[in-house]
Amino acid sequence: MAIIRLTKEFSFEMAHMLDHYDGLCSNMHGHSYRLFVTVAGEPDQNPQSPKQGMVMDFSILKKIVKEEIVDQLDHAMLISSTSEHAPLLRKMGGRIIEVDYQPTCENMVTRFAERIMKRLPQGVKLFSVKLHETATSFAEWYASDNI
């Protein structure tokens, strides 16, 4: 049977800042992120299955990505927990999310892949994750590069 890839696109708004960075991204700023998640697998061949012909139900992929990423980060401020600004942001309140890494697009796409992989159904593999920070700038994670 053929291996088929499915891709689902998501979008969310989020702010971040890069602590001690030597450019403008050291300032608090936001992006309209676009996230593309691609999985791969063999379509179900059971003629009695309501999922016959599917690698996985798109609604299940949507649920996983929304719960693991979009619902948590949409309209939030992402900052390294070691940032000197973290205590002030905590006092300000709101959706402040502290992470144990510098919140670059590259680090985020790697963490997103780790979280999504843990939730995929048996027989479905994460193929790639692509995170657009702007319309023309993105980071990509491929399973084949990370084996």
Description:
With 147 residues, the protein is of the alpha/beta class. The chain is 24% helix and 33% strand. It contains three helices and six strands. Strands 4-3-1-2-5-6 form a six-stranded mixed beta sheet, with helices on both faces. α2 links the parallel β3 and β4. The longest helix is centred in the middle third of the chain and has 16 residues. The radius of gyration is 17 Å and the shape is elongated.
Quick description:
The chain is α/β, with parallel strands linked by helices. It contains 3 helices and 6 strands. The chain starts with a strand and ends in a 5-residue tail after the last strand.
User: How many strand elements?
Assistant: 6
Given helix and strand content, the structural type is alpha/beta
> Regions with pLDDT < 50 over 5+ consecutive residues?
none
Strand order across the biggest sheet? 4-3-1-2-5-6
Hey, roughly how much beta strand do the residues contain? 25-35%
SSE order, one letter for each helix or strand: EEHEHEHEE
**Could you tell me the radius of gyration in angstroms?**
17 Å
Shape field: elongated
Helix coverage percent: 10-25%
**Terminal residue distance:** 23 Å
Supply the number of helical segments: 3
- Note the main sheet: 6 strands, mixed
